[in-house]
Write a structure and sequence with these properties.
The protein has 499 residues and is an alpha+beta fold. 36% of the residues lie in helices and 20% in strands. The structure holds flavin-adenine dinucleotide. The site of flavin-adenine dinucleotide (FAD) has 37 residues, from strand 3, helix 6 and strand 10.
Length: 499
């Protein structure tokens, strides 16, 4: 199974003296800040990709940057792997513990330190929930734009580490476009201050490098986020289509027309039915696909753009176009979309969420091919995704209790990601590589590019103790996976061992 770590990696880290480390950590953490009982460790055995599980050796729960620093320095001194964890909602196994590691939970660094309405920024600790930032900024007429569907639970630190996206990111940008500064602690215990209030900082853009670094380069202990004024008006439209491909064509046509919606999301029939049964969003359950489009801004602009979007959807073949009549109906439209993942629990005991991106214009053909792959692998796939960004989230439905179904789900997931790469896209839009997509990195990148990633990792963490076995494959792994780039028939790195 993909979730398992490479035994050669285990061998790189010497077995450490757990008692000595425990004694050292107890001197730097509060009395309840270190967990070692098996039942307490069990809570941290996986993230949102629950098919992959492994136990940490210890869980550290620091409350301050200084305590984070002490934990990292102790692990470095004793050669112990460390895995940072925010809220554990990640979907790529990024916070999956390396067996026996110290799991460094940032959940107790959860204070909103300052909101500056004039500078339109908020300074927060990494364990603050995404939604809590907009709730705190609301009284100032401000909000934090990146809004993952998990925003009620996921942490800002985890958002930065994954460069999280969300419905509003089409218009307002991803996490990387909405943060101003970071405080990061390296494995050596150095505290870095990256970015600042100025629009651009001199030197290499380490703020951007740290964003999306998946806990491999350092531990984020403070984040300054940019806040935006709440839009004066927001209205939503729902368009229903009898064919999924027509919905895909409408998406490409809306963007080509120059409209930039605040959200442009698509759901196919399986997702529509699940969401409707789950929360009664008012979706047409006979549609093959629906598009949800939100426009925000000044009232007159919103009205004219809505009319344009409605016309484009009808021209693309929409059988029904509905404007939310009031704020309550707009909220209902979005409640169905935000509930689509949990709603899958009504359809199958387990689901596996894939996260690839493709150029928008390729949506119809890629969705058709996913439907064919679903049939050939014998597992249903529901599609609910950020259509405006071309960011697909096929949800593969399976039952882990049935022999071989998880393996089949993994095989289908890999085939979908490789389809995204062939279509000119990428193997992850927002959920990160983590443990899950490490093989597909070999498909996406050349050995030279993977080497460059490894060199950056080594510059921050030469020991490889921070989140080992994630995001950057070794070239030997790529060789075994059989997915190395072949240049003019010449196999690269022919000297590497293949199994
Ligand atoms: C129902 C559901 C819907 C989702 N919808 C979206 C969506 O719309 N958009 C989206 O982008 N994602 C989505 N996700 C995925 C997930 O919520 C995001 O990836 C989120 O950013 C993870 O945050 P977290 O706090 O849970 O991080 P975790 O899962 O705890 O960790 C994620 C990664 O970040 C690292 N990390 C965490 N905190 C730190 C830190 N302080 N310093 C350094 N590294 C750190 C971890 O080591 C790990 O590699 C969804 C997940 C679920 C379950």
């Amino acid at each position: 199974m993909l979730g398992e770590f490479d035994p050669r990696l285990d061998a790189r880290f010497d077995a450490y003296d757990r008692e000595t480390l425990t004694a050292r950590l107890r001197t730097v953490l509060p009395a309840d800040g270190l967990l070692s009982a098996p039942e307490a460790l069990r809570v941290y055995e996986c993230d949102g990709l629950a098919a992959y599980r492994s136990l940490p050796g210890l869980v550290a729960l620091p409350r301050t940057t200084e305590e984070v620093r002490e934990v990292l320095m102790a692990c470095k001194a004793m050669g112990v792997p460390v895995v940072a964890r925010g809220a554990g909602t990640g979907l790529s196994g990024g916070a999956l513990p390396f067996p026996g590691c110290v799991l460094l939970s940032l959940s107790r660094l959860a204070a909103i330190l300052a909101i500056d309405p004039d500078a339109r920024t908020a300074r927060v600790q990494p364990g603050v929930r995404n939604l809590a930032v907009s709730e705190a900024a609301g009284p100032f007429g401000l909000f934090y734009a990146p809004d993952p569907s998990s925003q009620a639970a996921c942490s800002i630190g985890g958002n930065v580490a994954e460069n999280a996206g969300g419905v509003h990111c089409l218009k307002y940008g991803l996490t990387v476009n909405n943060i101003a500064a970071l405080e990061v602690v390296t494995l050596d215990g150095e505290i870095l201050h990256l970015g600042g209030e100025a629009l651009d900082a001199p030197g290499f853009d380490l703020l951007a490098l740290m964003t999306g670094s998946e806990g491999l380069l350092g531990v984020i202990t403070e984040v300054t986020v940019r806040l935006l004024p709440q839009p004066a008006h927001a209205r939503a439209l729902l368009a229903a289509f009898a064919a999924v491909g027509d919905g895909g064509r409408a998406v490409a046509a809306i963007i080509a027309d120059g409209v930039i919606p605040a959200g442009l999301e698509m759901m196919d029939n399986l997702a529509i039915v699940a969401a409707e049964q789950y929360c009664g969003a008012g979706y047409p359950t006979d549609a093959a696909a629906i598009l949800l489009c939100e426009l925000d801004g000044e009232e007159a602009d919103v009205a004219s753009e809505l009319a344009r979007v409605a016309d484009i959807c009808r021209a693309a073949g929409a059988s029904d176009v509905r404007l939310a009549r009031d704020e309550a109906e707009r909220q209902r439209f979005w409640a169905g979309r935000k509930a689509a993942f949990p709603a899958m629990g009504r359809m199958a005991p387990d689901y596996y969420c894939i996260d690839g991106t493709i150029p928008r214009a390729r949506l119809p053909e890629v969705l058709d091919e996913i439907a064919r792959l679903s049939i050939s692998h014998g597992l249903p796939v529901a599609n609910v995704f950020h259509a405006g960004d071309g960011n697909l989230h096929p949800l593969i439905l399976y039952d882990a209790r049935r022999e071989g179904e998880l393996d089949r789900a993994e095989g289908l997931g890999g085939a979908i990601l490789e389809l995204c790469v062939r279509a000119g896209g990428t193997i992850t839009g927002e959920h990160g590589v983590g443990r899950e997509k490490i093989n597909q990195m070999c498909v996406q990148f050349s050995p030279q590019e993977i080497d460059a990633f490894a060199a950056i990792k080594a510059a921050f963490d030469p020991t490889g103790l921070l989140n080992p076995g994630k995001a950057i494959p070794t070239l030997a792994r790529c060789a075994e996976f059989g997915a190395m780039h072949v240049h003019r028939g010449a196999v690269a790195f022919a000297h590497l061992d293949r199994l």
